[in-house]
Write a structure and sequence with these properties.
alpha/beta, 5-stranded mixed sheet, 7-stranded mixed sheet
Amino acid sequence: MSRDERVIVLGEDVGKLGGVFRATAGLQKKFGKDRVMDTPLAEAGIVGMAIGMAIYGLKPVAEIQFMGFDFLCHNQLMAHAARMRNRTRGRWTVPMVVRMPCGGGIHAPELHSDSFEATYAHIPGLKIVMPSTPHDTKGLLLAAIEDPDPVIFLEHKRIYRAVKDEVPDGFYTVPIGKGERVCEGTDVTIVTWGFMRHLAANVAKSFTAEGVSIEVIDIRSIVPLDEEMILESVRKTGRLIVLHEAARFCGLGAEIAALCAEKEMFSLKAPLERVTGYDITMPLPKGEMMQLPSEARLVHAIRKVMEHG
């Protein structure tokens, strides 16, 4: 915000309170109420206002407090933000960012722990990123603010308090559309994102003693997807597991599975596996850990793909 006076922050409680997770703490005091705006409890209004700001030259960063509240602004995002570049044949773009906490694991109430990234991935015109470390969060957020098109910026709630990382001072970006190879391996590829990256890395490490070498890829960007990093890894290991919290049916795991089936079918030594949330509404707090993928379920999938060749 110091570098670019066009950057505006808006949302419920982002100003005086500093956001529900204090992600914007201190910004209103530093930059004033004209650039850090507390809004009414009206998600469609927040996103609609951000679209108008973006079209007329500002760079709004809008916050939806929890992803389960995003139904109220779907029309603004899908019918307007995503289509404006095409609708105006490139004369107008919508350089805005919509931040949404998502994911489960902190025992929050209903509509606070959902993972609907696949819903947005199906809409042309939107970019979607989901960092899994503090370093990537800063770098991807700055890249999203610099981007000329609308970016859905998903922040897994469990990471806010469970993951620590070195974050460089000053301005830097992490490229949108570029995945990260979290650990190198030669026997199994695990493709994942969000908090599941950390679960996958822990499980991969535990298999070292058994002589099973596991490669973990954090895609970081859902759209655009770093397809080549995934395909390159599958060519090397011949075994693929896709790990995500969202429901299995029509989830992003199905898209990644289809990608590998289309382009690397003959590299696969075993049927691919998906370890996902179940096809149910996210349970209330007492049941949510039964819904989320566990280390035990991932271990079972690894042993299953290793049974082949």
